[in-house]
Amino acid sequence: MVSHMSYMTTGTRYGHAKFVEDSSSGKPFEKFYNTGELLGKDEICSVRRCRHKQTRFYYGVKHVNISDLDMAARRTVKDEITSLKLLRGGPHIIRLLDVFEEKNNPENIYLVFEEMKGGNLLERVVEKEVYTEREARQVCKAVFTAIDYCHKKKVAHRDIKPHNIYLTEEDDDTTVRVASFGFAKKVTHKNCLQTLCGSAQYVAPEIIDQHVQGYDQRCDVWSLGVFAYVLLAGYVPFEGVVDDLTVEILTGKYEFHDEYWADISNSAKQMISSMLVVDPRNRITAAHALSCKWMETDEERLVLRDLSFAKNKLRTSLAPTTKVKAAVNAILARNKFLSIAGMFGNDDVTSISSPVRHRESTSMDMISENDSFGDSFLWGEQVGAVIEI
Length: 389
Known about the structure:
This protein is an alpha+beta fold. The chain has helices spanning 71-86, 121-127, 133-152, 205-208, 218-233, 245-251, 258-261, 266-275, 286-290, 293-296, 299-303, 308-316, 322-334; strands at 11-14, 17-20, 33-41, 45-52, 58-65, 96-101, 108-113, 119-120, 155-156, 165-167, 176-178, 185-186, 195-199, 351-356. The protein contains 13 helices and 14 strands.
């Protein structure tokens, strides 16, 4: 096998070897990779499996055609690349390995990722023969660690949900990766974010409350609380209690229904309750969640808690519903925006985005002279995703 390092000079540490960024040569993507199986696509991008011609290693490549995108959507693509480069090497965060932006082919961008051989987290859970509270905690610990790293880097993810979590290995549930950084934003100062974006059932109240002047990375902790709730019970906490999902979220109205929660650890419920706090000032941080009592509970106790009922309920969540779409419309109606851009893409009725309420700051705490995080608009498949649900 020819060494990948033998003909290139730049690279990044990846696993136990040094992955070399071929794009620095100025040559096209096709010079170095053969593309294979189609994993997902929409109007402007596709995700395929690819293989490096010399090393023979497999990766995932996302091909984005920006020719039909408006300036906001083009900026979103650029900003997502920026965020993933900033977070490169972070624990349990999908690794963007290379980006081909070719001078002779400016309408096409190729993003090379580590291969997600294990597929989507939800698909893995519903396929498992045995699913226990220990396994749910294991995933939560990995995802919380990833988001804690993002927050330490002053980045808010803004679209945390099980659909955006993947596994790099088919037979190893510990290889969790947080993906889909299309809504990621640099947090320059407290409450500096203004854009209505995220996924309807996971979005924090301060994002959809028109009386709130701004928000920051603390919105992710709310979404992590919903995420943990879903992994343990199999359904979202803010659905079906009242007709208006917005009211449920703004008032923090949810329950731990005895039918599903009676056998789940009280410490898990206490952690979730500390995360699903309407006022972000009183919400715990991702770092605090990682050190809570549930995270320190003996594995032997958790492995005895069977979550088969959660697995079965999750199976029904793999398809979007018109009920959720109606809830998204309710959220948008409550917030008096004049226009909505790119609300639903790739039949994903759970993701929302809108123009900013006020301009989000990009002038302070810049990553570099040319790197900043712009507002995100839903533009189809998020970077790192295979199929957005």
